[in-house]
C-alpha cells in the first residue's frame, strides 16, 4: 500500500530558506568584524571580469578578494582594490567568468584514477576498435597477465556487433586475439562486464553456471556464455581477477591506490572540480583519503558515502563518521545503497518491459528489505542515504522505502536530505513525491546527451518523453536537482554535463526532451550550491559569499551568455581551492 503524501514545505523552498539563512549568517558575521581604516590585505585577488557568485544577495561582481582559505569580499574593482597589498597575488580576469568551484555531485574518485591505469575504451566506436586495443595490450604483456579496461558501450558502436546476442557482442573475436591472457573489460556504466574465454575458464564459468541473484550471464542460442555478465553476475569473473592480485604486497597495493588518487585529483582540478562527492567507498579508501590529507597530497574536497555492501556496516558507522576533516577536505556521513542497475545494460528496474527486450524489466540488484534496513541504520546514526535508482520501478520503490521510514519518525523528517542517485527514469506520479519527502535528485546531465540517442530504443518514444531525464518537471515541483557525471562512466568534465541540462543537444543534432531543459542559471546552481545543499555543506561552499571557502574557477568564456553551440568549447583556465591556485591551463 502506498503511503499518502504528507503536506510539507517543498524542498526547493526549504533550500531557499536555508541558503538565505546561510548567506545572512555569513554576511552578518563578516559585517560584525572590527572595522579598520584600511582593510587587511588579501593574499589573492581576482579582478577585471564577470564574477557570478550564485548568492542571491550579491549575484554579480567584478572582483574577489581572498585571504587564507576564505573569501573576504566580492564587489567592484574599486572596492576590492582596497584589499591589495605589496604581497597580494593578482589574477587578471580580462573579462572572463569566475564562478564557484564545480562540485561533482556523484562520481567514483578512485575509479577515475584506476581507469587511467587501465585500457581506456571510452573512445571506441566499434567492436573492432575494442579488439584492436586489446590486441595491442596483449602484444605488450606477458602470457598470463590480465588485460583490464573500462568504457565500452555496445549501443554507441557503428556498425552493430555481428554476431550479437540481445544487442551485445560475443567473446569469439576477443578470445581469438588473447588466447594466453585473461581479459576483463567493464561496461561504461560499470553495470556489466565482458570477458574472454580464458578469463571465464579461470572463473569457472560454464554453460551450467547459474545466474546469481540480481544478475545475468548472457548466453547464446546453444546455452554457451557469450562473455557478457550483467549486474551482480560480473562478480563471477571479477573475483578471479582479484585472486590474481593476491601476490601483490601491501606496499604495492597502497602505492597503486595513492597513484590512482593523485591522478584523479589532477584530472579533477584540470576540469574545475574543487569538491567531489564519492558515491560508495570502503574502509580502506577512507583511510587512504585521511593519509593523503595528512601528508598534504589531497587538496580536493571529498564528501564520501560508505558503501552499503560493507560487512559490519552498523559497527563501522560510528567509527568512520567525520565532518570537515583536514581543513574541510573530508566528510563521511552518508551511505550509498543500490536498488537496480543501468539502462545501457538493461539492468535498470522498470515498471514495464524494455521496448527492445520485452522479456525483461531489468534487475532489483539488492532486496528491498535490505535497503530498508540500511535506511533505518542511517536514521539511527544520523547519516544521509543516497540510493542508486535509475529505472522508474526502482525510483518508486526507493521513495516508498524513504516515506515508510520517515513516517516512523516521532516528529516527522527533519531536514534529512536523503537522495536518489541518478533519478533517470521517473513515473510522473513520483516526481512531486521527491519534494514532498524532501529528497534530493542527484542527477547527471551528461547522460541525457550521451545515452539519449539510444534511450528510445530501450523505452520507446512515448515513455522516453514522459519519464526520462525530467530536470524541468523536478525543478518545477520544488525538488533540489544536482548535477554530476558519474565518472568514470563519463568524463569528469562539468561543461558537457552542464550543456546536457541547459541545451541537451545530442551528437545526432537532436534534443531528447526539449521541455525538460534548465535555464543557464539553474544549470550552474545544480553544479554548485545545489550540490553543496545535497551534502549539508551550503554554509561553507557552493557560492562566492564572504566567509565561505575560497573555491573558485575561471572559465575561458561565459557559459551563461555564449551561444549554445559555443558552450562545449569552454575551457577551465584557473582552478582555486581554499585560496590556492591548484591548476592553470597552459597558455591561458
Question: What is the compact description of this entry?
Answer:
This protein has 588 residues and is an alpha/beta fold. Among the domains are: 38-101 and 542-588, Urease, subunit C, domain 1; 111-244, Diaminopimelate Epimerase, Chain A, domain 1, CATH 3.10.310.70.
Key terms:
34% helix; 22% strand; alpha/beta; disordered N terminus; eight-stranded parallel beta sheet; single chain; Urease, subunit C, domain 1; 588 residues; Diaminopimelate Epimerase, Chain A, domain 1; eight-stranded mixed beta sheet
Helix content: 25-40%
Oligomer: single chain
Extended strand count: 25
What distance lies between the first and last C-alpha atoms, to the nearest angstrom? Answer: 59 Å
Strand content: 15-25%
Might you state the CATH topology name of the domain at 111-244?
Diaminopimelate Epimerase, Chain A, domain 1
- By DSSP (H or I, 4+ residues per run), the number of helices equals 21
Largest sheet: 8 strands, mixed
Secondary-structure class: alpha/beta
Amino acid at each position: 500500500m502506498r503511503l499518502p503524501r504528507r503536506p510539507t514545505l517543498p524542498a526547493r523552498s526549504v533550500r531557499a530558506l536555508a541558503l538565505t539563512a546561510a548567506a545572512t549568517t555569513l554576511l552578518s558575521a563578516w559585517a560584525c568584524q572590527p572595522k579598520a581604516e584600511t582593510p587587511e590585505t588579501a593574499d589573492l585577488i581576482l579582478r577585471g571580469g564577470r564574477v557570478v557568485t550564485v548568492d542571491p544577495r550579491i549575484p554579480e561582481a567584478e572582483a574577489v578578494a581572498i585571504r587564507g582559505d576564505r573569501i573576504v569580499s566580492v564587489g567592484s574593482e574599486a572596492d576590492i582594490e582596497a584589499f591589495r597589498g605589496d604581497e597580494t597575488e593578482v589574477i587578471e580576469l580580462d573579462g572572463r567568468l569566475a564562478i564557484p568551484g564545480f562540485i561533482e555531485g556523484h562520481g567514483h574518485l578512485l575509479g577515475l584514477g584506476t581507469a587511467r591505469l587501465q585500457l581506456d575504451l571510452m573512445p571506441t566506436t566499434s567492436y573492432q576498435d575494442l579488439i584492436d586495443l586489446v590486441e595491442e595490450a596483449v602484444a605488450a604483456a606477458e602470457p598470463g597477465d590480465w588485460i583490464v579496461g573500462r568504457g565500452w558501450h555496445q549501443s554507441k558502436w557503428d556498425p552493430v556487433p555481428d554476431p550479437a546476442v540481445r544487442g551485445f557482442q560475443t567473446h569469439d573475436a576477443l578470445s581469438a586475439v588473447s588466447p594466453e591472457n585473461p581479459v576483463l573489460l567493464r561496461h561504461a556504466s560499470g553495470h556489466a562486464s565482458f570477458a574472454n574465454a580464458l578469463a571465464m575458464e579461470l572463473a569457472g564459468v560454464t554453460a551450467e553456471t547459474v545466474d546469481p541473484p540480481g544478475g545475468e550471464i548472457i548466453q547464446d542460442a546453444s546455452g554457451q556464455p557469450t562473455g557478457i555478465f550483467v549486474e551482480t553476475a560480473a562478480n563471477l569473473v571479477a573475483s578471479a581477477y582479484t585472486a590474481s592480485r593476491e601476490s601483490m604486497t601491501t606496499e604495492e597495493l597502497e602505492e597503486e591506490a595513492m597513484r590512482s588518487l593523485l591522478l584523479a585529483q589532477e584530472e579533477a582540478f584540470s576540469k574545475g572540480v574543487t569538491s567531489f562527492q564519492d558515491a560508495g567507498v570502503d574502509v580502506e579508501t577512507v583511510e587512504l583519503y585521511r593519509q593523503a590529507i595528512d601528508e598534504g597530497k589531497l587538496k580536493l574536497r571529498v564528501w564520501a558515502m560508505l558503501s552499503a555492501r560493507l560487512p559490519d556496516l552498523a559497527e563501522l558507522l560510528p567509527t568512520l563518521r567525520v565532518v570537515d576533516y583536514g581543513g574541510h577536505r573530508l566528510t563521511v556521513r552518508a551511505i550509498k545503497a543500490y536498488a537496480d542497475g543501468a539502462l545501457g545494460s538493461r539492468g535498470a528496474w522498470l515498471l514495464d518491459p524494455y521496448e527492445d527486450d520485452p522479456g525483461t524489466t531489468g534487475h532489483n540488484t539488492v532486496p528491498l528489505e535490505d535497503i530498508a534496513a540500511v535506511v533505518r541504520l542511517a536514521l539511527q546514526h544520523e547519516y544521509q542515504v543516497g540510493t542508486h535508482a535509475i529505472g522508474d520501478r526502482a525510483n518508486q520503490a526507493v521513495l516508498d522505502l524513504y516515506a515508510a521510514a520517515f513516517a516512523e519518525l516521532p516528529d516527522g523528517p527533519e531536514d534529512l536530505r536523503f537522495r536518489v542517485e541518478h533519478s533517470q527514469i521517473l513515473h510522473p506520479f513520483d516526481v512531486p513525491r521527491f519534494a514532498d519527502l524532501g529528497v534530493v535528485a542527484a542527477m547527471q546531465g551528461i547522460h541525457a546527451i550521451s545515452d539519449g540517442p539510444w534511450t528510445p530504443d530501450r523505452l520507446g518514444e512515448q515513455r522516453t518523453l514522459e519519464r526520462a531525464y525530467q530536470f524541468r518537471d523536478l525543478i518545477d515541483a520544488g525538488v533540489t536537482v544536482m548535477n554530476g557525471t558519474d565518472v568514470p562512466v563519463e568524463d569528469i568534465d562539468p561543461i558537457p554535463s552542464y550543456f546536457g541540462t541547459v541545451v541537451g543537444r545530442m551528437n545526432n543534432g537532436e534534443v531528447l526532451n526539449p521541455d525538460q531543459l534548465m535555464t543557464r542559471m539553474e544549470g550552474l546552481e545544480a553544479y554548485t550550491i545545489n550540490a553543496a545543499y545535497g551534502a549539508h555543506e551550503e554554509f561553507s561552499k557552493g557560492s562566492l559569499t564572504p566567509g565561505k571557502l575560497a573555491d573558485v574557477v575561471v572559465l575561458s568564456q561565459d557559459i551563461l551568455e555564449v551561444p549554445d553551440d559555443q558552450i562545449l568549447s569552454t575551457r577551465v583556465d584557473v582552478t582555486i581551492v581554499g585560496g590556492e591556485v591548484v591548476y592553470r591551463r597552459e597558455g591561458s
